[in-house]
Amino acid sequence: MIKAGIIGGSGYTGGELIRILINHPQVEIDFVYSTTRAEKPVTDAHEDLLGATDLKFTGTINPKVDVLFLCLGHGNSKAFLDTHTFSDNTKVIDLSNDFRLKNDATYNGRKFVYGLPELQKEAIKNANNIANPGCFATAIQLALLPLAKNNLLTEDIHINAVTGSTGAGVSPSATSHFSWRNNNISWYKPFTHQHLGEINQSIVSLQDNQPNIFMLPQRGNFTKGIFVTSYLKFENSLEETWNLYEDFYVIDPFTHLSEKEVHLKQVINTNNCFIHLHKHEDVLLITSVIDNLIKGASGQAVQNMNLLFGFNESDGLNLKGSYF
Questions:
Q1: Two domains, one topology: 2-133+295-308 and 135-293
Q2: Mapped to the 3 state alphabet, what secondary structure does 66-84 carry?
Q3: Which residues, 6+ apart, have CB-to-CB distance to 145 below 8 Å?
Q4: Rounded to 5 degrees, what are φ and ψ at 148?
Q5: Quick one: how far is CA 224 from the chain centroid?
Q6: How confident is the model at residue 179 (pLDDT cuts 50, 70, 90)?
Q7: Which of 51, 90, 202, 230 is placed for a possible disulfide with 86 were both Cys, Cβ 3.0 to 4.6 Å?
Q8: Burial of 157 from C-beta contacts in 10 A (0-12 / 13-18 / 19+)
């Protein structure tokens, strides 16, 4: 049994992390840190956990926990590690974008390994600190990496990626407000989204050339999930392509190919990524779907923790979604 600490436990990703860890067979939550909610019950922020836990938020930390999860806003993880010291034996899993790129991967003596299990499982097993991938980046990479592994991303790639409102975080904003988001759709950060950096980094780690990626992120009028369609000109047959994907994901418990078209309700509240392949003349369409808060954040963080500590990769993550 290992002890875990959570920094930033009152947000959406923190809440999902608590939900998973209180049922994990190998983990005890040692503390959930919050300076604004110290001594208040965790159920004040996550009301659905009533009866499931009596944890309280705390304003103090245990520097000797076995694993520390940083569920902070982008840029805040570095600031937190600047002002708090932990044991050399404490493994850190960061859910922000602070350490995902190679130029940022070493900080305050800690070296962070990019934590996409389907890409570099063995490196994660031998790591001490993990930079958890972004939610868009997870869904897009899982759609593209089998092709990169075989040097087949040679044409421009066009991506439409729609995310739910929880992707914007728990603090309300003009574009996450219900009256604006409901019955509405819009794009943002066209072709410049920050997750492109980690996507490109992973692709060039597998193939010789860097393809052009035109990514159009969109805000959907739903709360959870990411629905991604990626398409490019492609010569190989659908059968050949399917075999490449099967081979790439043969040892991965959460990424699955579907012969039928996929949709968000299949993966919400699970750690799964479902992928569908479709060929139209000389164009390959790849659809990938995930829950942005689980496979795109907290579930993947626990998956990484399992690999770090030698647990079964699926421990605590056999989550059952609700189809309706």
A1: no
A2: CEEEECCCCCHHHHHHHHC
A3: 118, 119, 202, 203, 206, 248
A4: -60, -40
A5: 13
A6: confident
A7: 90
A8: buried
As a whole number of angstroms, the distance between CA 298 and CA 82 comes to: 23
pLDDT tops 90 at residue 31 = yes
What's the pLDDT tens digit per position in 187-239?
999 999 899 999 999 999 999 999 999 999 999 999 999 999 999 999 999 99
Model pTM? 0.96
Question: What's domain 2-133+295-308's architecture?
Answer: 3-Layer(aba) Sandwich (3.40)
Residue reference for tokens 């005890």: 28
The residues annotated as belonging to the active site are: 135
Q: Are 14 and 38 in contact (CB under 8 A)?
A: no
User: Cβ distance 225 to 290 under 8 Å?
Assistant: yes
What is the residue extent of each domain of the chain? Answer: 2-133+295-308, 135-293
Burial of 257-273, coded b for 16+ CB within 10 Å and e otherwise, reads eeeeebebebbbbbbbb
Residue 324: pLDDT band with limits 50, 70, 90? low
Q: CA 67 to CA 92: how far, in whole Å? A: 6
